Amino acid sequence: MSYEELSKSVKLSEGFRNKIYQDTEGFDTIGWGHKVVPADNFVADKEYTEEELQTVFDKDLSRAIAQAKQLMSQKWYRRFTRDSSTRLIGDVLSTWTIRGVKV
To answer: Global pTM?
Structure first.
């Protein structure tokens, strides 16, 4: 998946608000799901442009991608996902039938 495709998917999932709002967990949030922290210096009730919030979104998404890459490079994670994938494939295959014959 390209950066553009991932970006579009996250934006679609998060939705956009140009003012601070509280998310479902009660955290102040803005833009496309950015959790507001004091260092952000966002002002309550102020409307921000999409361009201003795009910069914040790009930083958030880049940070998330870097963290995901770091996690996936860990030996324990690769082993866990390999073992989990093997179990999942076995579970799926055990429920499949081909031309009426259980696989």
So the answer is: 0.69
pLDDT tens digit string along 55-89? 999 999 998 988 888 877 777 666 766 666 555 55
The CATH code of the domain that includes 25 is 1.10.530.40
Is the four-CA dihedral 34, 36, 41, 47 of positive or negative sign? positive
Q: Provide the token pair at 55.
A: 């910069």
CB 69 within 8 A of CB 52: no
Give the largest CA-CA distance in the chain. 64
CA distance 98 to 53: 51
Report which of 79, 30, 29, 80 is spatially closest to residue 52, judged by C-alpha positions. Answer: 30
CB 35 within 8 A of CB 28: yes
Q: Find the domain containing 21 and state its range.
A: 3-102
Contact at 8 Å (CB) between 81 and 89? Answer: no
Over residues 43-54, the pLDDT tens digits come to 999 999 999 999
